[in-house]
């Protein structure tokens, strides 16, 4: 099996009026093919139950399913990959468990973070936060588009070609500016999850993203 490619839009679940599974169903029906199940407050057994259902839905509908934090659950259910923050399992250890085809993403706030993650073999970088967001606790300093520009330039100079995914408080108006900095794509949670119609919001976002990037 070939490793799946990294899309332009990753939807990340957030607590909202819709259940986590409903959110994933809505956005996949809205056209996105890349989702991350992020459940921070729930018990591991409850997370595993949702993950299993969400993965099954994603498999049936051609979407890539990424598990936040829980390498053990990802391994157990056969998720497409994991997203790991600075306090999670190291990416090389996760790779040893999940194997070469697994998509491993890592969180970065600086160029040094990206360099370290590149050495540890991640497949994509979640670089942020772009701006303040209530979705994540203990937020790192905001980068703004100037920050992305500077860090993406450092990546270029260092020959690091990993796909960089912008994250943190993103809204449609941010997209033209962000894609100019050289990011590969965007990860969006609350703007989609808390919208009235997450599926329709996703479709609009994908159309917008398509105007600034060559594929999704
Ligand atoms: N990591 C950095 S910012 C963030 C995460 C998980 C939250 C992204 O969610 P939102 O609601 O799109 O700001
Ligand atoms: Mg984490």
From TrEMBL:
**Protein species of origin:** Carboxylicivirga sediminis
Q: Name one Pfam family in it.
A: TMP-TENI
* An annotated GO cellular component: cytoplasm
- Which pathway or pathways does this protein act in? Cofactor biosynthesis; thiamine diphosphate biosynthesis; thiamine phosphate from 4-amino-2-methyl-5-diphosphomethylpyrimidine and 4-methyl-5-(2-phosphoethyl)-thiazole: step 1/1
User: Which cofactor is essential here?
Assistant: Mg(2+)
Q: Which reaction does it catalyse?
A: 2-(2-carboxy-4-methylthiazol-5-yl)ethyl phosphate + 4-amino-2-methyl-5-(diphosphooxymethyl)pyrimidine + 2 H(+) = thiamine phosphate + CO2 + diphosphate; 2-[(2R,5Z)-2-carboxy-4-methylthiazol-5(2H)-ylidene]ethyl phosphate + 4-amino-2-methyl-5-(diphosphooxymethyl)pyrimidine + 2 H(+) = thiamine phosphate + CO2 + diphosphate; 4-methyl-5-(2-phosphooxyethyl)-thiazole + 4-amino-2-methyl-5-(diphosphooxymethyl)pyrimidine + H(+) = thiamine phosphate + diphosphate
UniProt xrefs under InterPro entries? Aldolase_TIM (IPR013785), ThiamineP_synth_sf (IPR036206), ThiamineP_synth_TenI (IPR022998), TMP_synthase (IPR034291)
Give all residue intervals belonging to the Thiamine phosphate synthase/TenI domain.
Answer: 10-192
Query: What family is it from?
Result: Belongs to the thiamine-phosphate synthase family.
Ordered alphabetically, the record's keywords are:
Magnesium, Metal-binding, Thiamine biosynthesis, Transferase
EC number, UniProt record: 2.5.1.3
Q: What does this protein do?
A: Condenses 4-methyl-5-(beta-hydroxyethyl)thiazole monophosphate (THZ-P) and 2-methyl-4-amino-5-hydroxymethyl pyrimidine pyrophosphate (HMP-PP) to form thiamine monophosphate (TMP).
Keyword Magnesium on entry: yes
In which residues is 2-[(2R,5Z)-2-carboxy-4-methylthiazol-5(2H)-ylidene]ethyl phosphate bound? 133-135, 169
Name any one GO molecular function.
magnesium ion binding
Q: Where are the transmembrane segments?
A: none
Binding-site positions, Mg(2+): 69, 88
Enzyme's top EC category: transferase
Indicate what this protein is called per its UniProt record.
Thiamine-phosphate synthase
From which domain of life does this come? Bacteria
* Biological process, per Gene Ontology: thiamine biosynthetic process; thiamine diphosphate biosynthetic process
Residues noted as binding 4-amino-2-methyl-5-(diphosphooxymethyl)pyrimidine in the record, renumbered to the chain: 36-40, 68, 107, 136
The record describes how the cofactor is bound as:
Binds 1 Mg(2+) ion per subunit.
């Amino acid at each position: 099996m070939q490793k799946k490619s990294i899309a332009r839009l990753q939807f990340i679940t957030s607590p909202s009026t819709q259940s986590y599974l409903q959110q994933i169903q809505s956005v996949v029906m809205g056209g996105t093919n890349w989702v991350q199940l992020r459940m921070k407050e729930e018990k591991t057994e409850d997370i595993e139950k949702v993950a299993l259902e969400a993965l099954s839905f994603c498999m049936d509908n051609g979407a890539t399913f990424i598990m936040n934090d829980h390498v053990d659950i990802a391994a157990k259910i056969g998720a497409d990959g994991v997203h790991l923050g600075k306090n999670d399992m190291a990416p090389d250890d996760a790779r040893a468990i999940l194997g070469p085809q697994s998509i491993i993403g890592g969180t970065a706030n600086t160029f040094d973070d990206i360099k370290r993650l590149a050495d540890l073999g991640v497949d994509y970088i979640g670089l942020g936060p772009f701006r303040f967001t209530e979705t994540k606790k203990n937020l790192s300093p905001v980068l703004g588009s100037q920050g992305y520009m500077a860090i993406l330039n450092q990546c270029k100079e260092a020959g690091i070609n990993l796909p960089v995914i912008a994250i943190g408080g993103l809204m449609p108006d941010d997209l033209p500016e962000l894609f100019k900095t050289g990011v590969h794509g965007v990860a969006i949670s609350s703007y989609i999850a808390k919208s009235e119609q997450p599926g329709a919001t996703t479709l609009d976002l994908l159309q917008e993203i398509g105007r600034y990037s060559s594929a999704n």
